Amino acid sequence: MADATPTPVPATPAAPATPDRGRPVLVVDDVHLKYKTYGGKRRTRSSRLPGWAQGFTQGVGAVDMVHAVKGVSFVAHHGESIGLIGHNGSGKSTLLRAVAGAMPVSSGAIYTDGVASLLGVSGALIKNLSGERNIILGCLALGLKPDEVAQHYDEVVEFADIGEFVRLPMEAYSSGMGARLRFAISTAASPDILMIDEALATGDASFKARSQRRIDEIRERAGTVLLVSHSMGTIKETCDRVLWLDSGVLRADGDPDEVIEAYMETQRKKVEAAKK
Amino acid sequence: MSAEPVADQQGRLPEEVGHSLKEIAERHGLRQVGGRPRLGAYLKGLLERRHFALVLARSQAYSQNQGSYLGQAWNILNPLINAAVYLTIFGYVLKTDRGVENYIAYLLVGVFFFQFVTRAITLGSKAVVGNTGLVNSLQFPRALLPISTVLTELIAFLPAIVVLLVLMPISGEPLRWWWLALPGAVALMHLWGTGMAFLLARLVVEVRDVANLIPFAMRALMYFSGVFFSITSYAGSGLLGTVLEYQPVAVYLQLARTCLMVEAEPSASLWIAAAAWAFGTLLVGFLFFWRAEAKYGRG
Question: What is the nearest CA distance from B176 to chain A, expressed in angstroms?
Fold first, then answer.
C-alpha cells in the first residue's frame, strides 16, 4: 500500500523490452562433439614406426577422430545476442552446427525452442545451380511452404543485391555475392535462433550496415542471435554476452568487455611469445 | 580471478539458479535437437518437406546436363548414343540374340532400364556422404536425400523413355494396350531403387569403402540381369535360371519388356514379384535408414 514507487529492478544490460524476454530458448547441456575425418591422420608422438611406414599409415586407414567440443554448457534466453570467440579450431563452428541440428552430439543434449537457422560462409547451397534455384531450395529447406517462398522471393533477391547474377550458377559468384545471397536466404524465414558464422566479415560497407539492421530486426522479433567472429569490434557492437571457447572447453561466459579483455590478454601473450 | 569470469551459472537468470539445465529446458517446453524422432513424427516431417525433395531432384536433374553447349539436349542424345553403341556391340559383333525375335527392341529396353538402375544405386548410395553441404548446414529428415537422389534419376530417365517409345515401332513392335502398363512397371522399379538407396546410403555412411565396391557389383549385375541376352535361353529354366529370372533387376527389365514387346508374355507372377521386391525393399531400407538418423552428419 505504501509502496507507490516500484522497487528498482537491477537493469539487465542491453536488453530490448519484449514480453518474451527472459524465456529460455536454447539450452546446451554438457555437450561433447566428435566427428570422423577421412584422408589424413595425426601422427602420434608415441609412434615408433620408421618413416616409410608412417607414410603408409597416411595413405591407408587414414581416418581420425576429432574431439571438437568437450563438455560445453550454457542457457540462452529470448532477446540475447551471444558472441562466440576463440582461436581457429576451438570448436565454435562445430558447436553452431550442432545447435542447428546439422551435426549429432556425441554426448549431452541440446534443447531449442523453434527453428534454429545457421548461416555459414561455406554454406548450404549447391554451387552448380543458379541463384534463383538456390533461393527456392534454401527457403524450402528452411521449412517454408511453396507459397511462402514465392512471397519472400523478391525480398531475398533485393536484399542480396546480386542483380542479373541471380540467373547464373553460384560458382560464378564472387565470395561477397555468395555470402550476401546466403545471408538473405537464411534470414528470409525469420528464424527463432539465428546463428551467424563469420558472415559479417564479408561484404562491403553498405551490405554490412543492411545486415546489421536485419540482425537487429530478428533480435526484436524472434529472439536469439549467436555470432561467431574473429572481429572483436563486430562482437562488441552486436552482442550483450560472450562465450569464449578454448580447445573445445568453455573458458569464460559473461559480459563482452570482460571476456574479450581476458581473451585479448592471452592473445597478446601468444603474439609476444611468437616474436621471441 | 575476476579476469576470467568462470561459467559457473552458465548464463542462468536469477530465478533459474539451482535448477539443472535439463530441468530448465523441460520446464519451458524446449525440444531436444537431433536424435532419432519416432517413426510417425519422422514420416510427418518427410511429408512436410516433400516440396524440398521434389525441387532438389528437379534442380539436380537439370544441372546434370548444364555444363555443356548442348545442355538439356543431352537428355535425348545420351540415350540415343547409348543405344547405338550397345546395338553395334551386341547386335553385330557379339551376337547374343539367341532365343529373341526382336533383338533390337529387347536390347534397347534392357540397356535403358538398366542404366536407370545403375545410376539410382550408384548415386543413391552416396546420397548422404555426397551432400555434406546440405547435411552440415540444415536440419531436415535425412531420408529426403536418398528419396530425392533417386527421384533425380527418374526425372532424367523420362526423356529416355520417350526415346524408347519412338524407337519401339521403328524396331517393328506394334502399338498395344499393354504400353499403358509401362508407367506401373517404372513406378515399381523406382520404389525398389529408392529402397536400395536407403540401404546403401546408410551402409556407405557407416563404412565409406562400400561405395568403392558398388561399381563392381553393378558390372556383375549387368551380366546376371538379362540386359543383352535372354536369361532363359542361356541359363536354362533350372534352379540357376529361376533364381536369375526372379532377382529384382531381371524382374523389372522383363516386366518392361512384357509391356512393350509382343513376344514377351505378360505374367501375373512377374507383376507380383516386382511389387514384392519394390515394397519389401522400400520398407526394410527405410527402417534401416531411419534407425541411424542420429548418426548422419558426424562424418
Answer: 40
* B32 touches A: beta carbon within 8 Å: yes
Q: Find which of B1, B13, B60, B138 to mutate to test the A interface (most A CBs within 10 Å of its CB).
A: B138
- Tens of pLDDT, residue by residue over B49-62, are 899 999 999 988 88
CB contact under 8 A, A103 and B297: yes
pLDDT, block means (10 residues), chain B with 299 residues: 49 77 81 81 90 90 82 84 84 75 89 93 93 76 94 93 92 91 96 97 93 93 85 77 88 94 89 97 97 79
**3-state DSSP assignment of residue B31:** strand
Task: Using alpha carbons, select from B113, B283, B140, B298 the residue that is nearest to residue B198.
Answer: B283
Residues of B in contact with A118 (CB under 8 A): 137-138
Question: Can you tell me the distance from the alpha carbon of A99 to that of A91, in angstroms, rounded to the nearest whole number?
Answer: 12
CB A182 within 8 A of CB A119: yes
Q: Cα distance from A209 to chain B (closest Cα, Å)?
A: 25
- Is the pLDDT reported for residue A201 higher than 60? no
Contacts with B21 from chain A: Cβ below 8 Å: 27-30, 73, 75
Domains of chain A, by residue range, sit at: 121-190
Do residues B98 and B229 make contact, with C-beta atoms less than 8 angstroms apart?
A: yes
Reference A23, options A81, A79, A80, A77; nearest CA is A77
Dihedral, CA of residue B218, residue B108, residue B124 and residue B73, to nearest 10: 130
Q: What is the ipTM score, two decimals?
A: 0.71
Candidates B9, B10, B148, partner chain A, best to mutate (most A CBs within 10 A): B10
d(CA B116, CA B85): 17
